[in-house]
Specification:
The chain has helices at residues 16-26, 43-51, 77-82, 101-111, 130-139, 152-161, 217-224, 233-248, and strands at residues 2-8, 31-37, 57-60, 74-75, 87-91, 94-98, 120-124, 144-148, 166-167, 178-181, 205-208, 228-230. It is an alpha/beta fold and 260 residues long. The strands form two sheets. Strands 2-1-3-5-6-4 form a six-stranded mixed sheet. It has a six-stranded parallel sheet with strand order 9-8-7-10-11-12, with helices on both faces. Helix 1 crosses helix 8, helix 4 crosses helix 5 and helix 4 packs across helix 8. It binds 2'-monophosphoadenosine-5'-diphosphate (ATR).
Length: 260
């Protein structure tokens, strides 16, 4: 039986096992996908299990998407560009790190028929997921990306890699068509991003990478003020679909009721 795991810390909230096991069953594959909470010191050992074929594939989630990199034999060009790995597999005796978050974000936007072409997109946050979003937006022909992070240095560091970015102070709101919450604010119920919603003219797209809770305060408020909202559920489903394809060479079926 093939074995797949998702590693992270915490990992309890992860819906990856539910999704992958559903597709495994649907496609009559003999495999099992489980979750494992690990610490930084466990990474080397777990990756060597891929080399030894005790584990067939790993998904990596917060906070290890960057810290797994030194233990891998190779990165795909996308993983290298994003400096972020969420999918690990073995090929030609090498353990390879890939990134399906970029594609997941891209497909998630296509799913709702939203085009970022020539639009202004405002990203909140400069943490682990930000580079994947920036790469996807650029692939989709975004007009301009404005980014703001509480710790401004981290935003400035991203600008060194992606020179077209405009960095603005945390708390300021630029003119935009789409705003993305790429911070971890909203995961806890009392988390709130302080924005002056009344100052933002309606009909914007408010996008939250968070999908659990289903609607963060960021999205609830945005809706109240007449904006379109979207959570990170489809991005999550599509990144999983792409990982599944890498491991099983089969594109499983996606529909928006998958995790309901
Ligand atoms: P990391 O920063 O280690 O990559 P992450 O979970 O990928 O961790 O990213 C967390 C993001 O949420 C960061 O952009 C972080 O801002 P800082 O760089 O200033 O830490 C942001 N974030 C977390 N808590 C926040 C808060 N209370 N207010 C504003 N931003 C917050």
């Amino acid at each position: 039986m093939k074995k797949y795991i998702v590693i992270g810390n915490p990992i309890e909230h992860s819906l990856s096992p539910k999704l992958h096991n559903h597709w495994i069953k649907e496609n009559n594959i003999t495999a099992d996908y489980s979750k494992k909470q690990i610490n930084q010191t466990d990474i080397e050992g777990i990756i060597s299990e891929v080399k030894d074929e005790k584990i067939d594939g790993i998904n990596v989630t917060v906070p290890f998407k960057k810290s797994v990199i030194p233990y891998l034999d190779e990165l795909t060009s996308l993983a290298k560009e994003a400096q972020s790995v969420n999918t690990i597999f073995k090929k030609d005796n090498k353990v390879i790190g890939d990134n399906t978050d970029v594609g997941g974000f891209e497909q998630g936007l296509k799913h709702i028929n939203y085009s970022v072409k020539n639009k202004k997109v405002f990203i909140l946050g400069a943490g682990g997921v930000a580079p994947s979003i920036i790469i996807a937006l650029r692939k989709l022909g975004v007009g301009k990306i404005i980014l703001s992070n509480r710790t401004k240095d981290k935003a400035e560091n991203l600008k060194k890699i992606y020179p077209g970015l405009e960095i603005i102070d945390w708390g300021k709101i630029p003119d935009f068509n789409m705003i993305i919450n790429a911070t971890s604010l909203g995961l806890k119920n009392d988390d709130e991003i302080k924005l002056n919603y009344a100052d933002i003219t309606p009909n914007k797209l408010f996008y939250d990478v968070i999908y659990n809770p289903n609607k963060t305060k960021f999205l609830l408020k945005a809706k109240q003020f007449g904006n379109q909202i979207e959570n990170g559920k489809m991005m999550f489903i599509y990144q999983a679909q792409l990982a599944f394809k890498i491991w099983h060479n089969l594109l499983p079926k996606v529909d928006d009721k998958l995790l309901d």
